[in-house]
Design a protein that fits this description.
Number of helices: 13
Shape: globular
Number of domains: 2
CATH architecture of the largest domain: 3-Layer(aba) Sandwich
Length: 466
């Protein structure tokens, strides 16, 4: 067996080992409605619930206090498409085959204008809920997430909202909340069937256009709202970067107001049936912490550390510190609702942790993966490596100790640091080798034509370059 195959096999063993644990006791949420709220580009460290000093999220913070908050959640990618496919399927990008690269809008290689493609054989969360008798509805605002690309699978109704106001390149949160209210009212016409509702908000995503009130509160005096570059930067105008960061905070606060209205609507729905609400994000945004702005070109914490909160009347509130992955969301929801998970999955159920069990690291820590094309992140407990294939095949390896350096400002130069876990760099190489072998037969990307020009125009308005 070649060393590449050996490493890949070893990684697969490490990733899937957690799946062989005995199943947790059945949760008592069976039959509940489920609402999954994804806030595009919302980084965890800009929320009060995650320790942020500025008052960006009072509604979300109060909401999180009622439920279970996971403190250390790693997204499977720092770009929407691979992250969302991993969220719905429970598998990492190197397996589902959708790998995005900066400034190309491409998948699996340098293919300008390429479009996403979910493998036909992949299992998706909405399909499981629909098979279980749920009404399945999606209300989406990100043009990457077209139903025909596979994101609509499992949903009886999949609504990609166009913005009501031409000033904005995406539908705002009040439009999402209104559509959600209509969906909830329609679902109530069939009270025998619970509702699985997915809402994707874009208010925190660039361009940053917060409400006037929130801009006055958190970004006063900022007149240039056009400053945004998605990618690495050679230099910056520090004043403009600070202004953009403050506008981002104001956008978070703007979304927080939309969340308040949404929670009121969901609370009214609870009169007939209890509801599980999950709030998370696909990735974050950088403001020159590591030489860039935006997302989709690096795997540092500001773009892969995302919030994850579960709230249900029967879930006792607590905070969970153990590192987890967004690929864990699908198996966790299935476990909580008493549904069967599929076999081919990288994620694990977090129900034991949600119920206060297995809080301590027992045995060998689990390895978490995040990817973006030729960049691979492997994390074990608080230790993290980022492996990047650069020009002419050169490979760069960065090592960080997040316990002592949460902002990743002090790269470790020696892997022999006491306590450093073995195998992280090798695991990153294995993922890189696996995803570099090609798209794989299941991706079937060749059957797809280029992304329509209208959608590419929408993406350019959101900061994605050609």
């Amino acid at each position: 067996m070649s060393w590449h195959r050996l490493l890949t096999a070893s990684l697969a063993f490490l990733i899937f080992a957690a799946c062989s644990e005995s199943p947790s006791e059945p949760a008592s949420l069976k039959g509940s409605n489920v609402v999954v709220v994804v806030v595009d580009a919302l980084r965890a460290d800009r929320l009060g619930a995650y320790g942020y000093a500025r008052e960006t999220s009072p509604v979300l913070d109060e909401f999180a206090e009622k439920g279970i908050l996971f403190e250390s959640v790693t997204s499977a990618a720092s770009q929407t498409v691979p992250s969302m496919i991993s969220l719905w399927s429970g598998v990492y990008p190197y397996r589902h085959g959708n790998q995005y690269f900066p400034k190309t809008n491409s998948i699996g290689g340098e293919r300008k204008g390429g479009r996403p493609a979910l493998p036909d054989s992949s299992n998706l969360l909405a399909e499981s809920f629909r098979e279980a008798g749920y009404q399945t509805v999606a209300i989406v605002t990100n043009p990457w997430l077209q139903a025909e690309y596979g994101f609509g699978r499992g949903f009886e109704s999949y609504l990609l909202l166009d913005p009501a106001n031409s000033e904005y390149p995406y539908a705002r949160g009040d439009e999402v909340s209104f559509a959600a209210e209509m969906a909830i009212e329609h679902a109530a016409l069939d009270p025998e069937k619970p509702l699985f509702l997915y809402l994707h908000f874009m208010d925190v995503h660039a361009p940053y256009w917060p409400s006037p009130d929130e801009q006055a509160r958190l970004a006063p005096g900022i007149t240039d709202r056009s400053f945004y570059t998605n990618g690495r930067l050679r230099g910056i105008d520090e004043k403009k970067m600070l202004g953009a960061s403050q506008l981002y905070d104001a956008e978070v606060r703007t979304f927080d107001g939309f969340l308040e209205k949404l929670l009121e609507t969901i609370e009214a729905m609870g009169e007939a049936r209890e509801t599980l609400i999950v709030l998370t994000a696909d990735h974050g945004d950088e403001f020159f912490e590591h030489g860039g702005m935006g997302h989709g070109f690096s795997l540092y914490e500001e773009v892969v550390h995302v919030p994850l909160v579960f709230v249900h009347p029967k879930l006792q509130n607590r905070r969970v510190s153990k590192p987890v992955s967004l690929v864990d969301l699908a198996p966790t929801l299935l476990d909580l609702l008493g549904l069967k998970a599929w076999l081919e999955i990288d994620g694990v159920s977090l129900v034991d942790q949600m119920q206060g069990r297995q809080q301590e690291e027992g045995g060998k820590p689990r390895m978490l993966v995040s990817e973006l094309g030729d960049q691979k992140l492997i994390r074990s407990a608080h230790r993290k490596v980022i492996l990047s294939r650069e020009r002419e095949g050169a490979v760069r390896l960065e090592r960080f100790d997040l316990a002592h350096d949460p902002l990743e400002q002090s790269e470790l130069s020696d892997a022999a640091t006491p306590g450093w876990p073995t195998g992280l760099a090798e695991a990153a190489e294995a993922v890189l080798e696996s995803s570099s072998r090609g798209r794989g037969p299941e991706s079937d990307l060749d059957r797809l034509g280029p992304m329509p020009e209208k959608i590419q125009d929408q993406l350019r308005a959101l900061g994605y370059s050609d």
